[in-house]
Design goal:
Blueprint lengths: L6 E5 L2 H21 L7 H16 L3 E8 L2 E9 L12 E9 L8 H15 L4 E4 L6 H9 L14
Parallel strand pairs: 4-5
Antiparallel strand pairs: 1-2, 2-3, 3-4
The structure holds coenzyme A.
Coenzyme A (COA) binds next to α1, β4, α3 and α4.
Amino acid sequence: MVDECQVLIREATIEDLKRVKFLWLKLAEEMYKIEEYIFPSKENAERWFSSVLSTLREGKGKVFVAQLNGEIVGFIYFIHSLRTFLEVSKQVALISDMYVKPEFRRRGIGSLLLEKCFEHLRKLHIKHVMLSVLSENLAAVKFYEKHGFKICRYDMSRNI
Ligand SMILES: CC(C)(COP(=O)(O)OP(=O)(O)OC[C@H]1O[C@@H](n2cnc3c(N)ncnc32)[C@H](O)[C@@H]1OP(=O)(O)O)[C@@H](O)C(=O)NCCC(=O)NCCS
């Protein structure tokens, strides 16, 4: 476990976001090894970055980073105001991406990022949060289960 005093969880600055874009590419590389779908390319990192910037500018989401000894070692990106054209009974936030650098995992940093996200959502009176995780991404599945997430739907796929 990291000493909570050593890890600073804070909102990302514009400068941090450039670093976060690089971490997203690392996340995409890891996910591509599990499921070949989203290309872990620099072009996709730019597309992702543009989409994050517009969400942040519209005030619809947040990025928090974990900083340890001056280094950004992880991030969480979530959207609290999802676009929907249908009437819904509750406001649900979406955890879009989260990542902790491999050498800093299993030390509680992911948990601190998630807790910061929950804290922010509670301030917005949002009581529900969802996310998607690849079923073969066992570390992340275990992580989310440990934090109380339960399966509420199945995405299914097959080759045709
Ligand atoms: C998921 C992720 C963010 C967790 O971050 P972390 O800093 O390691 O998380 P924490 O240290 O706070 O929590 C660790 C807990 O998660 C679970 N966990 C994490 N890695 C695990 C692994 N390899 N095997 C089993 N359980 C694991 C365990 O419950 C663990 O608790 P424990 O150490 O007491 O057993 C990190 O593994 C990661 O960045 N993975 C790659 C990117 C990813 O999959 N992102 C999520 C999908 S978008």
